[in-house]
Design brief:
Elements: E1 2-7, H1 12-21, E2 26-31, E3 55-58, E4 61-64, H2 66-77, H3 90-117, H4 123-143, H5 157-170, H6 187-197, H7 200-208, H8 212-222
Parallel strand pairs: 1-2
Antiparallel strand pairs: 1-3, 3-4
């Protein structure tokens, strides 16, 4: 049985989503953030010394880093699903998006969140962070201009990695981290987000980690319904 150590409002969601897409059995062990610092609890360090999420245990293997986990799961359990063949010319593009998600796209978003949480007044730092965020959002938006997913018309694990990035950039309904969405000028990213939020495996993953209500609110908003505040 695959075990997913899930920290609320974290990248762990990607792993649960992936396992749902692959229809693999799994168990979720839940952890709550500190209500003040928003950091992970010390109990996660009993599973891995860095005490971060996601952590996955599959047999004798314990892995951190969502990109590595996704790559490992698709390679070992995918049976050809959610990734192009290594002999396909799309494989290089798949790998690029798979690792771009954490390597380049997420850091500016995280820095922006930290700046907001700590109420940093460093205007220059904020301006630099905003510049990088806008640069990456434009890059991602342009990549989706003529295709449905990040690797052409095929949904792959790269979309699971990138989907979390786009969700983070939206962020307007993330409990505990409420702020305005950053996607207002990026129609392609908005359309992409609507698509991935409607995937059955995505919805099952949200339910599995206890965020079904958030998912329902997001879908209701996209359908134009009134959502209670």
């Amino acid at each position: 049985m695959i075990k997913v150590h899930n920290l609320e409002h974290s990248r762990s969601m990607r792993i649960v989503w992936l396992l749902e897409e692959l229809e693999l059995p799994y168990e979720i062990i839940q952890y709550q953030r500190d209500p003040v610092t928003k950091l992970a609890p010390e109990s996660l360090k009993k599973i891995h010394p860095l005490g971060k999420a996601p952590i996955v245990q599959a047999g004798e293997v314990t892995l951190i880093e969502s990109g590595a986990i996704v790559d490992y799961m698709v390679s070992c359990y995918g049976d050809g699903r959610l990734a192009p063949s290594k002999h396909n010319t799309d494989y290089a593009t798949y790998l690029q998006w798979l690792h771009y998600a954490e390597g380049s796209a997420m850091p500016p978003l995280v820095f922006g969140l930290i700046t907001q949480i700590t109420e940093t007044k460093a205007e220059m730092l904020s301006a630099v962070i905003k510049h990088f965020i806008d640069t990456h959002l434009s890059y991602m938006n342009d990549a989706l201009a003529l295709q449905t997913y990040f690797v052409g018309e095929q949904f792959t694990a790269a979309d699971i990695m990138m989907g979390f990035v786009i969700e983070s950039a939206d962020g307007s309904d993330t409990p505990g981290f409420k702020r305005s969405s950053l996607l207002g000028e990026y129609a392609n990213l908005q359309g992409y987000l609507k698509q991935i939020r409607s995937r059955p495996a995505y919805l099952r993953a949200m339910k599995a980690i206890g965020e079904e209500a958030l998912s329902e609110n997001l879908l209701n908003k996209e359908e134009g319904e009134t959502v209670p505040s």
